[in-house]
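Lay summary. Proteins are chains of building blocks that fold into shapes, and those shapes determine what they do. In this project we predict the shape from the chain. Here is one chain we studied, written as its sequence of building blocks.
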Amino acid sequence: MSRRRSKPPVRRYHDRVARRYDASYEDVFWQWHDALTWEGLRPFLPSAHAAPTLDLGCGTGKWALRLLDSGYAVTCVDVSGAMVEQARRKIEAVGRAGRAAFLQADLCDLSELPDEAFDLALALGDPIGCTQSPPRALSQIRRKLRPAGILVATLDNRLAAVDHYLEQRDVSALDAFLRTGRTHWLTADPDEQFPIWTYTPAQAVRLFEKCGFEVLDMMGKTVLPMRHYRELLADPATRRVLTRLEMRLSRDPAAVGRAAHVQMAARRTSGNEAESDD
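And here is the predicted shape, written in a compact code that computers can read:
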């Protein structure tokens, strides 16, 4: 078996695209999307200066750099070694490597990190749902957070994928998907089609609670389907109106079900850890 084929599909894909990954997320939609993400997580940043934080599924280090700019120490973790290397290079280039650490690891096995050591963990870009077992990944993350530590994470919204199956005219696949919540990354190479676990907003809350977290905040991201209407975001005045509308809709429980992703902020609860592979 070749070295490439021995890698898990999620690692194969991200290793391959690491060098050009940022180019896919540089347009006006993603600028808008990232601003909404930061506004949603900002209230949950640690109050202590230089608090230790985790950027899980760090990719090329976009959110790690934001945390470093805010004064925190950051440990960057990703299943892809190529992604971790891109994050390292980016952080070294701005002279921030002294407060950063780097680790290639699957979120289902964070044993190389110390327990109860971090005030905040970010898992943005849906890395928890791309693991073999989101409950196990959440339990691992919980173990690394200090008591009352905060996790801010995104999950793919199961309801947002319904249109894809209907567009394919595949009702049987839609039925199976809605029962299991499991789909896969839509890349052309079958060897890179890693599994993705999706959740409705209510299911996401239950998942977090089952794994020892208290959900503090939930927002849809994004409720307005601006990915399909990017040109409207190019005009600053229109963009301001759309931002105001999105901020209002994203906290409406009825509207969150329309969003592509669900962003959760949750606190580690006290008590015994409940780990599950379900």
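What the prediction tells us: The two ends are 30 Å apart (CA to CA).
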